[in-house]
Specification:
By secondary structure, this protein is an all-alpha fold. The chain has 8 helices and no strands. It starts with 6 loop residues before the first helix and ends with a helix.
Length: 283
């Protein structure tokens, strides 16, 4: 008696998030469509209004794919909501084993949701230039990612770092400008709060804009992997990628391999050093 019922509120929140996932999926596929048009056109001057054409492709051909992908995310979120409701209702009576079991299930579902969002985004990109169904795109893009694991790691690490630096610089510049604009304002008794609010809004705007670049990085990489699979550079099967893109990706992959090789050598040297120290102590 007297305990609030949390499930209806969480149910409403999940329904709102489900609708949000659908619109985000439409956004991702439309932007991906713009990038793949540019990539798969040899004469880039012939690309006109790619974003508008990408939006048209989504609503004309791929709305079912987007709905199916966002439905999967919504189902996972629904299961998490039910588990959260069970946790809330039985938190006073459940044993420690059941408590940790539910927490593990929540953690696994959270990880599964993140993985599915990653696969969905790349499947949307593949669908944007192949026009295949959702499940077929998932299968094909998973094979592409699996065959380019090192490159995926390089692209994600470098891309995430660059995007983070960009967001950080936007927030810092906004905070500095806000400080110099407000510190001499006599009507303000405490300038830190307006600067903090402006910085938060700056981060939100920067995150929104940089998400376009994030989708672009993923789209270009998927196109690159498919291009490398289908073409070999011979006459009649020329690459669509530029030479600079090919050199950058190959050099990045080679740099990662060299770094791993160097770490292995350092570990081997450290083991040899430890064994020599042990031998000296025994003597």
């Amino acid at each position: 008696h007297g305990r609030p019922v949390v499930f209806p509120k969480q149910w409403y929140q999940r329904r709102v998030r489900g609708g949000t996932e659908f619109f985000l999926a439409c956004h991702e596929m439309a932007i991906a469509g713009a990038f793949v048009q540019f990539y798969w056109t040899r004469d880039k001057r012939k690309v006109h209004f790619p974003v508008l054409r990408g939006i048209w492709w989504v609503f004309r051909y791929h709305l079912g794919t987007v709905a199916f992908g966002s439905c999967i995310i919504a189902i996972i979120q629904l299961i998490r909501t039910i588990l959260a409701y069970i946790q809330n209702k039985t938190k006073d009576s459940q044993s420690e084993f059941v408590k940790y079991l539910l927490l593990c299930l929540q953690c696994c579902l959270w990880c599964f949701e993140k993985i599915m969002k990653f696969i969905n985004r790349n499947a949307y990109i593949y669908t944007a230039f192949k026009g295949s169904a959702f499940c077929t795109s998932c299968k094909k893009v998973f094979g592409l990612l699996l065959s380019n694991v090192v490159r995926v790691g390089v692209i994600n690490c470098v891309g995430m770092f660059i995007l983070f630096i960009g967001k950080f610089l936007v927030v810092i510049v906004t905070a500095i400008l806000g400080y110099f604009m407000m510190k001499n304002d006599d009507d303000l008794y405490f300038w830190a709060i307006p600067v903090l609010i402006a910085s938060i809004f700056a981060f939100a705007v920067a995150h929104t804009f940089f998400s376009v670049y994030e989708i672009g990085i993923d789209a270009i990489f998927i196109c690159f992997a498919e291009d490398e699979t289908k073409n070999d550079g011979t006459p009649g099967r020329e690459y669509y990628m530029s030479k600079n893109l090919m050199e950058w990706v190959d050099n990045s992959g080679e740099a990662i391999k060299n770094l791993r090789r160097k770490k292995k050598q350092q570990k081997a040297q450290a083991r040899v050093g430890k064994s020599n120290d042990v031998n000296m102590e025994d003597m």
